[in-house]
Amino acid sequence: MTTNAPSLGRLQGMDLPRFEDLAASTDPMLDRLALALAAALRPVDVEGALATLDALGEEVARALGGADRTPQAEASALTHVLGTRHGFHGDTEQYDRPENSLLDRVLERRRGLPILLSTVYVEVARRAGVPLAGVGLPGHYVVGHFGGAEPLLLDPFAGGLPLAGDVPWAFVRPWTPQQTAMRMLNNLVPAFQRRGDLTRALRAAELRLALPAGEDELARVRAELVALRAGLN
Predict the structure, then answer these.
(1) How many angstroms separate the CA atoms of 109 and 208, rounded?
(2) How far apart are CA 63 and CA 85, in angstroms?
(3) Is 155 helix (H, G, I), strand (E, B) or coil?
(4) Which residues pair with 137 in a beta bridge?
(5) For residue 66, what pLDDT is reported?
(6) Mean pLDDT, residues 42-60
(7) Residues in domain Protein SirB1 N-terminal (predicted)?
């Protein structure tokens, strides 16, 4: 078990509001919220991460050029730049490693969980003027292009290919940044626990209290906090 408190909340390169402050805001930007989440747990080069997203967004915009910007063309450009050219794919070897849930590390490694790879797609798309949003499904997280008559779903974990299999359309809707951050933290808490890092598991669990949630979910989070604190004593 980790006994020394980790260095938490340190930023490199630029200032960023605290995760708790962004989580309480009306419409936080997903990239800032995800980076603030990571910075609450370990040092983060925020400026470098944002510069990477900016550069990828410019590549997608150039790939689209003057072409007819249909949902299919925009989705194809994202898949080509991120999935094919830069190799963003799911980490199938160490799926639950904490690095797969930290945006700056996913940008560096080009590997991650579905929800973090989807965050990369959403933020790169936003910079290229493409209306993409994260979509939380049972047991999976993908992105949806909502600019056409029907949503066009892509699976960033599979390199940006169209989502395969039966689609549970009842769950297909854009997720808010806060909903996405809650799911990221739900992944991080057990990932840290399994590695004996109870200090960071506790910190990740505490961050969830800053996010809007229903009473049942808040009760579950509080109960988990009690158990984690008991494990540290």
Answers:
(1) 26
(2) 11
(3) strand
(4) 140
(5) 76
(6) 97
(7) 49-163
**Alpha-carbon distances of 81 from 88, 110, 148, rounded to whole Å:** 9, 12, 21
Look at the domain 11-175 and name its fold.
C8orf32 fold (3.10.620)
The three-class DSSP label of residue 185 is: helix
Q: What are phi and psi of 127, to 5 degrees?
A: -70, -25
* Exposed/middle/buried for residue 87 (C-beta within 10 Å: 0-12, 13-18, 19+): exposed
Paired strand residues for 11? 44
pLDDT of 11 reads: 53
| CB half-sphere exposure, 118, CA atoms < 13 A | 28
pLDDT surpasses 80 at 150: yes
Q: Identify residue 56 by its one-letter amino acid code.
A: L
Predicted TM-score of the model (pTM) = 0.92
Report the amino acid identity of residue 164.
A
C-alpha to C-alpha distance for 94 and 106, rounded to whole angstroms: 13
Q: How many helices (H) and strands (E) does the chain have?
A: 9, 8
- Residues facing residue 141 across a β-bridge: 136
Q: What share of the chain is helix, strand, coil (3-state, %, to 5)?
A: 55, 10, 35
Are 9 and 31 within 8 A, CB to CB?
no
Which residues of the chain form CATH 3.10.620? 11-175
Sign of the alpha-carbon torsion through 13, 128, 102, 29: positive
Q: How far apart are CA 115 and CA 183, in angstroms?
A: 8
pLDDT tens for residues 65-77? 977 889 999 999 9
